[in-house]
């Protein structure tokens, strides 16, 4: 399944908030992503339909990643970290790398990313 950029952002945000706070609520995503609550609600329904998250607790106020969602989020975070390290190693200032990595991550194929990883490990 091809996952949209928006869904990727939500998965990473859910993972990050859960790591920091131990739990995630829709309001946390609203604040983190600076998106309206209705937009968050719509995306959460889509993510749940795709089996990437589960909502639980009283009135489904808590959000957690499924095993599949967690695996995808972990991969995205690792990919981001590797690309950022590569740019910094190329003497690109960290502040610039931070802005450019999301654009690279969104457009690079898994095949190209794998080759970057292998080349980076060899050095």
Structure in words:
By secondary structure, this protein is mostly helical. It has two domains: 66 residues, Arc Repressor Mutant, subunit A, CATH 1.10.10; 49 residues, no CATH class. Helices cover 72% and strands 8% of the residues. A three-stranded antiparallel beta sheet has the order 1-3-2. Helix 1 packs across helix 4 and helix 4 crosses helix 5. The mean pLDDT is 91.
Furnish the topology, listing elements before pairings.
Elements: H1 5-21, E1 24-25, H2 26-33, H3 37-49, E2 53-56, E3 62-65, H4 67-89, H5 94-107, H6 110-122
Antiparallel strand pairs: 1-3, 2-3
Give a short summary of the structure:
Strands 1-3-2 form a three-stranded antiparallel sheet. Helices cover 72% and strands 8% of the residues. The chain has helices at residues 5-21, 26-33, 37-49, 67-89, 94-107, 110-122, and strands at residues 24-25, 53-56, 62-65.
What is the structural class?
Answer: mainly alpha
Amount of helix: over 70%
What fraction of the residues are assigned to beta strands by DSSP? Answer: 5-15%
Q: How many DSSP H or I helices?
A: 6
What is the CA-atom radius of gyration, in angstroms?
16 Å
The helix/strand order is: HEHHEEHHH
Poorly predicted regions: none
Characteristics:
single chain, 123 residues, mainly alpha, Arc Repressor Mutant, subunit A, three-stranded antiparallel beta sheet, 6 helices, 3 strands, elongated
């Amino acid at each position: 399944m091809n996952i949209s950029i928006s869904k990727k952002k939500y998965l990473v945000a859910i993972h990050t908030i859960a790591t920091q706070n131990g739990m995630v609520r829709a309001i946390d995503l609203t604040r983190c992503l600076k998106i309206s609550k209705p937009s968050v609600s719509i995306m959460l329904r889509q993510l749940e339909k795709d089996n990437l998250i589960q909502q639980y607790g009283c009135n489904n106020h808590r959000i957690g990643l499924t095993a599949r969602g967690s695996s995808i989020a972990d991969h995205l975070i690792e990919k981001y970290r590797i690309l950022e390290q590569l740019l910094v190693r190329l003497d690109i200032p960290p502040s610039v790398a931070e802005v450019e990595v999301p654009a690279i991550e969104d457009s690079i194929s898994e095949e190209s990313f794998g080759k970057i990883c292998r080349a980076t490990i060899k050095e």
